[in-house]
Design a protein that fits this description.
The protein has 8 helices and 2 strands. It is mostly helical. It has a two-stranded antiparallel ribbon with strand order 1-2.
Length: 175
Amino acid sequence: MRKAVNIVGLELSVGFLHEFTGSQTKESLVYDLQEPFRWLGDDYRYHIEIDAKRRFLELLKDRFNLGLKYKGKIWKWDTVILNKTQELARFLLYKYKQIDFIEPRPSLQRIDTQDLRKRILELTQTEARKLGIGKSTLHYMRKNAERNQPFRIYEVITRRLMAFQKCGPETEEPQ
């Protein structure tokens, strides 16, 4: 965001959502402009080890370099951010009558689908053990599945659950 603001030549300290105070940053506009794109970095954790930070930054860089269809072309997110900052500058200079921070829309997919919630709630302790899911993990997964709020689950566990759902439990044949 800071790079885009600098390229366009806007003043970093003049924000419209975040205001500059003595105890806050002098880069209010940078924080304002990051809001519409915050979802790109939604996996952020505050206290993480150096190796984890490096891995997170690589994942974030990969996400920013993903191509998306916008205005009939394939754009990278850093180019979209620069374009939106330029649009803001043109709006502030009365060259544009309006500004659009809605397009491109984020593509957010929830993994906590109703099917997954149902599968978690129906999962027996024996089935969970066969899937490599411990007792306490199953307890917390059920707790989250019962609530009507979004929740996250490790991708490997999701895959195991969905594969198990498709194939069904392995049953022993009567002898």
